[in-house]
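Morning. Coffee machine broken again, so started the prediction first thing and wrote up yesterday's gels while waiting. Chain of 247 residues, entered below exactly as on the submission form.
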Amino acid sequence: MIASLPMYLRPELADAHDRYWSLIRGGLEAAGIAAPERLSQDAAEEEVWLNPGLVLSQTCGMPYRIRLHERVALVGTPDFGLDGCSPGYYRSAIVVRADDPRRELGEFRDAVFAYNQTDSQSGYAAMYHHVAALGFWFERTMLSGGHAKSVEAVASGQADVASIDAVSWRLIERYGDTARELRVIDWTEPTPGLPYIAAGDAKVRAVAAAVTAAIDGLADDDRAALGIRALVSIPRRAYLAIPNPGA
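Came back before lunch.
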């Protein structure tokens, strides 16, 4: 059996994540569901998501809709109380350097766009459809490997613009200095947030109940640090309805 909560992990939040998992684990075991003592935060994401012993993990909406939705169980979606978003939904901050003279996103047609990975809803797909509405796609792109790295690439001048998950951006603003060198030029349209998943044969209601109880049981400091308000139910069809890049 295995579990992970890797999506918004930062060194500053490692202890809070561990305490959150301890609460979830206690609820699972009370429901008769075996759970690992510790999260496998360093394990390869795909290996965790497709592990037949998956107790709980978190994935991005795009991998869920393109390859996971028929192989895992949808547990629920954490709500982070993001401005401009319905509960459980999120959007992306489109960031540029603070001193960049361009004021409209349409002026960035020939800019270098940094993205974390091509199967990221917030870092790639959301931006693809956002600028498609403006009639273009970036002439130059660079793969950064992570939202924080995309932010660093823009700040350093390696790239000019990036699309950053709103929760990740909130954490970067809170804990990093790089955000001060950037500004948000626009926001993408909200889409369903990063869902919690379990193995396909999981007792979904019991797992969701354990997660909900854990969120309710978080200490105030941990709740504020993690930013999680609740677990909400967003139907699978809402995830599958989001178009992929090129569609």
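The longest strand covers residues 72-79. Going to sketch it on the whiteboard this afternoon.
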